[in-house]
Amino acid sequence: QVQLVESGGGLVQAGGSLRLACAASGRSFTRRAVGWFRQPPGKEREFVSAVTQSGGAVYADSVKGRFTISGDNAKSTVYLQMNSLKPEDTAVYYCAARHRWASGYYETSDYDYWGQGTQVTVSS
């Protein structure tokens, strides 16, 4: 079994920065993709960013230019650097990974493993 553990969440003022980390442990496998999702209070879980199978990065429009994903699928830790944070970024942030080849990155069903989440709160 694979375990994903997120860290780095917290409370920050608008305009501030946080860096989230996703650490993988357990059964060794080649991760084909690692993604970050978030779930704002009372809303559905939504895509934030992912490292693709080819090692590139994709982002949701709402975070493009402010968030940067780093690390690659072979490393045990993937990071999400979040700058210029806004109150609407407040959410529980989840790390996700998959080991199968697939074409999508933007849906929760594109991933096989999930972390427990870390809370990010941005105050205005």
Structure characterization notes:
The structure is a single chain. The protein is mainly beta and 124 residues long. The protein is 0% helix and 49% strand. It contains no helices and eleven strands. Strands 2, 4, 5, 6, 9, 10 and 11 form a seven-stranded mixed beta sheet that branches. A four-stranded antiparallel beta sheet has the order 1-3-8-7, with no helix packed on it. It starts with a strand and ends with a strand.
Q: Strand share of the residues? A: over 45%
Radius of gyration: 13 Å
Roughly what is the average pLDDT, rounded to an integer?
A: 92
Euclidean distance between termini CA atoms? 40 Å
Provide the helix percentage.
under 10%
- The oligomeric state is single chain
In total, the number of strands is 11
- The string of secondary-structure elements, in order, is EEEEEEEEEEE
Number of helices: 0
Summarize the main sheet. 7 strands, mixed
Shape by Cα distribution: globular
Regions with little confidence, pLDDT below 50 for 5+ residues: none
Strand-pairing-aware structural class: mainly beta
